[in-house]
Design goal:
- By secondary structure, this protein is an alpha+beta fold.
- It folds into 2 domains: 79 residues, Arc Repressor Mutant, subunit A (Orthogonal Bundle); 117 residues, Orthogonal Bundle (Arc Repressor Mutant, subunit A).
- It is 36% helix and 12% strand.
- The chain has a 3-stranded antiparallel sheet with strand order 1-3-2.
- It is elongated, with a radius of gyration of 26 Å.
- The N and C termini lie far apart (81 Å).
- About 11% of the residues have low confidence.
Length: 228
């Protein structure tokens, strides 16, 4: 065989998706690394078909991604299903830190007196329905106002109430604490010092910090309407 024939010989396929020579556990770990690396390196969602080409035919891709996501639970980012593929995305609670690191100016939302009063009522009564807010404040609270507070990231949907119609409740988000310079809900002033009247409250009790969610819990519906 001449030197020219040797140079023309096609290079062997170095990529082996099956990894049959590895023990099962090591093979699975290698598949996990391949899939996460491909997603991490791509600025766009990586289609399932491309990810499936990185692993063997015996690999169940959904189980593999579930294992990767399980390992990322303590990290500030996650794998998210987007447009038929998967993408690395930072968790929402770190958005303020990211904006700050980029030098973006964080401007607090400008709230009207009515919006501030509603937000205050939610902080003390949460989890609370829109109807309960209306009754406590003695005025109708519109869906538009609640939607505005949600867009500002100050409130979110809480669990549904076990009653006819299963209305949503509302809870405050960490942005509420940041807006008012509070460390936690325990830093809320006594309700008597607010000057909002004696009707703000349920049975005269201020909501305790224990058991009050500051964000969206599992299974809570962020975009559903609160009432039919």
């Amino acid at each position: 065989m001449s030197r020219r024939d040797t140079l023309r010989k096609p290079a062997p396929d170095l990529f082996d998706p099956e990894l049959a020579d590895l023990p099962p556990d090591a093979r699975w770990r290698e598949w996990m690394g391949r899939v996460e690396a491909a997603i991490f390196a791509s600025p766009d969602p990586v289609p399932r078909a491309r990810l499936a080409a990185l692993v063997g035919t015996a690999c169940v891709l959904d189980d593999l991604i579930a294992d990767i996501r399980d390992e990322l639970k303590g990290r500030p980012y996650d794998l998210v299903a987007v447009e038929g593929g998967w993408q690395h995305r930072t968790r929402p609670r770190f958005s303020a830190a990211i904006r700050q690191a980029r030098g973006e100016v964080l401007r607090p939302p400008a709230l009207s007196q009515t919006e501030t009063l509603i937000l205050t009522a939610i902080a003390y009564l949460q989890p609370v329905t829109r109807a309960q807010l209306s009754a406590s404040l003695g005025r109708e609270i519109s869906r538009d106002t609640m939607a505005l507070l949600k867009r500002h990231g100050l409130i979110a949907a809480g669990p549904r109430v076990a009653q006819l119609g299963a209305p949503l409740t509302y809870v405050t988000m960490p942005a509420f604490l940041s807006l008012f310079g509070l460390g936690s809900l325990r830093d809320l002033p006594d309700i008597e010092n607010l000057g909002v009247g004696p009707t703000l409250g349920r049975d005269g009790d201020r909501a305790a910090d224990d058991g009050i969610p500051l964000g969206l819990g599992e299974g809570m519906e962020a975009d559903a309407d609160d009432e039919p």
